[in-house]
Every structure is written in C-alpha cells, then in structure tokens.
Write a structure and sequence with these properties.
The complex is a heterodimer. By secondary structure, chain A is an alpha/beta fold. Helices cover 43% and strands 19% of the residues of chain A. Chain A has two domains: 122 residues, Response regulator (Rossmann fold), CATH 3.40.50; 155 residues, Response regulator (Rossmann fold). Chain A contains eleven helices and twelve strands. Classes of the chains: A alpha/beta, B mainly alpha.
Chain lengths: 329, 321
C-alpha cells in the first residue's frame, strides 16, 4: 500500500512537471484568418511580440469553419496549453460550455463577456477611440461633412458610429455626419463593392473624410476614398499603409496588447472582465510615416488633450451599448 | 432631388447593373439552350478570384480578365459535363458549383497569398481604370446634356461598355443568325433539332461556354473594375438577382437590360437614401434592400403575365429510348 502510494505520488509529480513544461500559451484566430489586415492580424502581432521578447513558444489554430470552434478549444486545453486566447465574439457560446470542463486552464476571450471563473473577458472602449478619430476627421474636413460606413448593423458598430459622431461634433458642432450601414446580415462584412458605392454616394453628398468600421467591406471604402482623392480612416489594425497619404489615421484596437498581456500573465492569470480603453492603451489612433503629413501638430495636440480629458473623466463619451441610443447623430 | 444628384444616382445605377447584366445575359444563353443555370453566382465568384489573383501576380488587368474567363468556362464545362453528357440534374449540378466556388476560392487564395482568403490589392495597370470618352471635358459645360455625357456616359471602365454592347450582340446572335435559331430550338424542342441532323449536345455545350465567358467578364469586372482585388464571397448574391432579372425579362435580351437597370436603380436608391422619408413615413433600409425581390414577385404576378421558360429547359436530352 505504501509502495503503491509512493508510485502514485511519483506519477502525479511527473504528470505535474510534464504539464508545466507543456504550458505554452495558445491563440485561436477567428474565421477571417490571421492575415486579415485587421482584427486577427493584430492578435497575431501581439503573440509574435511576446515570442520574440521572451523566446517562448506558442501554439496557434486558425478557424476554417464554424464547426471547429469547440474542437479547437478542447484540443488546446487537453494538450496542456495555458492560457488559451481566442479572438472574436463568435467564441462566446462555445467557451461558455467548454470552460467549466477545464477548470485548471485559463481562457481569454476578446470582444465578448463570458461569465466563468477561469475566463478573462477583454472588451474595448471603441467609442473612446472613435471619438478621437472623429475629432481628427472634423479638423481635416474642409466641407464640414464627414462620413461613417459601418458593416453589419449591430450595437457594437453603432458604438463606433456614436463615438465618432460625438468626436466630430465636439470640434465642429455644425458638422454633418452621414452614417451608413452596409447591411443587416453577416454578408455585410465582406461586400467591398457595396462599400465602394456607399462611399461614392457619401462623397457626392459632400463627405471628404470617411471612417470605415466594416471589416472586409472597409477595404472597398478605403479604396474608393483613395480613388476619389478624399481621406479615409481605417479600423482595428493600423491600415495607414493600405493607401499611403490617403488614409488620415486608423482607430487602433490594441488586440495585440490584449494577447501580449495574456501571454505575459501566463497560467492562472487574473480573470473577470478586463476593459481596455484610452487609459490603458487599449484603443488609440495610429500615426506613422504613411500619414505623418496629414496629421498636423495642432490636430495632434488637440486630440492628445482630449484623450487625457477622457482618461481623467472630464470628457464623458457616451457608450451606445449602455442604453442603445446616441445623444448626437 | 436636384439634377446632379439624379446624375450621380444613375451613374451608380450603371455600375451596379453591369455585373447583373453580364450574368443575366450569360444565364439567357444557357437557359435558351435548355440548360438551367443557378451556378451564375459560383462562376462569377470563381472568375472574380481568378482575375484578382492573376492580375495581382502579372500586374495586368487583361491577363486577369483572361484568367477569370478561363476559370468560369471551366466551371461551365463541369456543369455541361454533369448535366449534358451525363444527363444529371441541372439544379443539383448548379448548387454543387456554387458551393465548390465559395469554398475553393477562399482556400486557394489563402494558400497562395496568406491574406485571410483575399488577394493583394491591385495597383495601376492591375485594374481596369475609368475611360474618358472623347470631348467629355469640352462638352461638360453644355447644360443638361453636358453632365449627362461627361459624367453618366463617360468615365466607366471598359467592361461596362462591353456589357452594354453585349445586349444588341446577344439579340442579334439569338434572333438573326442560324446559330441563334438552332440554339433557341434546342431549348424548345431538341428532338426537332436532332432530326434535322444537328448536334444537340454540341449546341448546348456552345451555349454553356458562352455563358461561362460572360460570367467570367462579370466576375472580372467585380474584382478588377469595380474593386481592387478579390475578397471572400464578394459576389454577395448578385448571381441570384441576375436570375430573378432573367425571369423578369422573360428570357429576352433587351428586357434583360431594362430589368438589370431597374434592379441597379433600386440598389442605388437604397444606398443613397438609407432611410427614405416619404410623406413623413420613414422607409427603413431593409425594405429598400428587399425591393428588387418584392418587385419581381409583384410584377411577375400582376403586370408582365406568365413568364414561360424554354420548354425543354431543365431536361437532359435523350436521343432514343
């Protein structure tokens, strides 16, 4: 019996050490793929940064179909990956079922809140970042009319639109913000043709800066803006390089920071809802060599000032999703 | 609505109607020959991918166009093989091609370019740029007619003009040539054509190949004319709207033009006026988006009367029993 216990103990110790050595973090990319120039690519960038800085290894899975979600999460959890980070709200339901089965694994979901003891939910204050790019749009606009083109008409996208409109009005109360949604089905994320037509329609109504929060449709919006020689604003990742000199800035959602932090925190990371806003560099605007000439010093000062005021609470940006309405439009 | 706005809406109508029109004429050739083709969507998608990919690699929109036509014709031949040679069900073959194109394009695009199932953005000669017709600038100062010429008629990519020219060309081929007569006969009464000693299989294959070419141009227009590259599912149901337009037009080329322009106009209006106010009642954008479909049903049911498809449509031809 004693012998038996010793053996068991040794086996358990082995198992634990094996588990520890295997505890590489993992990241699961959603359907867009890790090189989508946007959301998933940002997550990939964060994971890559972590790997370069620490010399560590991580595992990754790219979703190829809806049906793989649960399988992917279970496989990673069972093979000892910890923590497991997934990008996109679409994992919400699956994670809610999978997480209780692996209480020792930490999960991180981005853009969705999942209420489980071993899950960290990372959400972003998109309205704050949109407010800042709205200010820049109003300052860059000569006609006083700016545009917004959203993807699928869901509250999250309204949140972008509402923050943007508030930013525009804070600079120029008389400005007109023309808002269009591409559609009401998921196809609206991938219809650049419609994005182009919407942009052209907005341009003919006087718009000279357009902000696209529309996934793949946004590629069309930025294209049409560059073709017609007006300014555009990208979203999620830094999209300034897509049309150098034609993209005013990009509203960055620092998904890379969320992934990087999760990887750095490692197994047993702090769970609960983690809100990433201006105060912790979760959102922001992009300036690089592609748009340096477009962003004037005056613009930058004003935006940075407003950013500080939002952080301190002096300016309150209304969150559309808090009451499903927007004070300005 | 002032005059410049009207011009802009009509301009947008023309751009939106072009892929519909090409796909509609493609379906017209195929269905007039008795081969129902619900794979217009899939062929356009495959052509859009092939043209986007090859234009990106070669840097030439013309090579892209050729590749797009090639991809579309391949799928057409597959449809022909399944439904003409092996006498399979045309609808099932069409559905299969739609699924095949939706999956294969993204898979190959991901494998070649690793950009999440899209092709790299096209620059410069990789796209069909707008063509300015002669005298467009000089004439633009003439009131009314000037803007119509310089903004509405001039300034489209060459494929738009190709699509418009295809309408009289289709009419001429189908109704004024021997080939057209035989093609129509094969869709109405293949046995009679066979009795006259003409190959039914050959004619039907010719029809599906023409269908493939036109779908190829439509797809290439989407990826290299209207936009700058391929993205997943970029046809977004246009192939099915083209089918509706085809029924609406009762399988006739000129009416196909009118139907596609009407659908294009409705889409342009929906894009321009997302929340239309008519006498104080706000019309939601969802209603505007469904208008083409509602209109098809209403007009078919009430105004144009019965749309009778070619009699032998959907039936594989069996020489002897």
């Amino acid at each position: 019996m004693i012998l038996m216990r010793t053996f068991l103990g040794a086996a358990a110790a082995l198992a634990v050490s094996a588990g520890a050595s295997l505890a590489d973090p993992a990241v699961v990319f959603d359907l867009g793929g890790k090189f989508d120039k946007s959301f998933n690519e940002a997550a990939f960038g964060g994971a890559q940064r972590w790997a370069e800085e620490t010399g560590g290894d991580y595992r990754e899975i790219e979703m190829q179909s809806e049906a793989q979600r649960e399988q992917a999460l279970r496989r990673l959890a069972e093979s000892g990956s910890n923590p497991v980070v997934m990008t996109g709200f679409a994992f919400g339901n699956v994670l809610n079922e999978v997480a209780p089965d692996y209480p020792d694994t930490s999960f991180v979901i981005i853009d969705m809140v999942v209420d489980q003891p071993n899950v960290r939910s990372v959400v972003f204050n998109e309205h704050e970042g949109s407010f800042l790019v709205g200010m820049m749009a109003a300052k860059a606009s000569k006609t006083g009319t700016v545009g917004f083109i959203g993807g699928m008409d869901i509250p999250l996208i309204r949140k972008f639109a509402c923050g943007y409109a508030q930013g525009v009005k804070s600079v120029n109360p008389d400005a007109t913000v023309i808002q269009n949604m591409t559609g009401t089905t998921p196809a609206a994320w991938n219809d650049p043709g419609k994005g182009i037509e919407l942009t052209k329609a907005q341009i003919s109504q006087g718009v000279d800066v357009v902000y696209a929060a529309a996934g793949g449709t946004g590629v069309g919006v930025l294209q049409a803006a560059a073709d017609e020689n007006i300014l555009s604003i990208g979203v999620d990742s830094n999209q300034n390089h897509l049309h150098p000199g034609k993209v005013l800035t990009s509203m960055m959602k620092r998904v890379d920071n969320a992934v990087y932090t999760a990887f750095t925190d490692g197994p047993g990371l702090e769970t609960g809802v983690n809100v990433m806003g201006l105060s912790n560099d979760g959102v922001g605007y992009a300036v690089d060599e592609n748009n340096a000439e477009l962003v004037t010093a005056e613009m930058k000062t004003a935006v940075d000032e407003a950013s500080a005021k939002i952080v301190s609470g002096e300016i309150a940006v209304h969150d559309y999703m808090s009451d499903n309405s927007c004070p300005v439009n | 609505m002032d005059f410049p706005t009207l011009i802009q809406i009509l301009d947008s109508t023309l751009r939106l109607a072009t892929p519909l029109l090409l796909a509609c004429l493609a379906g017209l050739f195929s269905e007039r020959a008795g081969i129902f083709d619900i794979a217009l969507e899939g062929k356009m998608l495959a052509a859009a991918f092939a043209s986007g990919a090859f234009a990106a690699i070669s840097g030439s929109a013309w090579i892209g166009l050729a590749a797009g036509i090639g991809a579309s014709v391949m799928l057409s031949l597959l449809h022909g093989l399944a439904s003409i040679t092996f006498r399979g069900n045309q609808l099932i073959s069409g559905v299969a091609i739609n699924f095949l194109a939706a999956g294969l394009t993204v898979l190959v695009a991901q494998h070649w370019f690793q950009q999440g199932g899209r092709t790299p953005s096209l620059l410069g000669d990789g796209r069909f740029s707008p063509i300015k017709l002669p005298l467009a600038d000089t004439l633009s100062r003439i009131p009314v007619l000037g803007p119509i010429y310089s903004e509405l008629i001039s300034g489209h990519s060459i494929l738009v003009y190709v699509a418009i020219i295809c309408v009289p060309a289709t009419w001429y081929v189908l109704f004024r040539t021997r080939f057209g007569l035989r093609l129509r006969a094969v869709g109405e009464n293949p046995a009679a054509v066979d009795t006259a000693g003409i190959s039914v299989v050959g004619l039907r294959f010719a029809a599906v190949v023409i269908c493939g070419v036109l779908c190829g141009v439509a797809g290439a227009y989407l990826a290299t004319g209207l936009q700058a590259g391929f993205v997943k599912d970029m046809t977004a149901g246009r192939g099915f709207i083209a089918l509706a337009a085809l029924i609406f037009a009762k399988w006739r080329p000129w009416f196909a033009l009118y139907a596609c322009l009407l659908f294009g106009l409705l889409q342009a209006l929906a894009l321009r006026y997302q929340n239309l106010d008519i006498a104080g009642i706000a019309v939601p954008v969802q209603l505007m988006d469904t208008l083409p479909y509602i209109l098809t049903v209403v007009i078919l049911a009430g105004f144009v009367g019965r749309a009778v498809p070619p009699r032998a449509g959907g039936e594989p031809y069996v020489k002897e029993r």
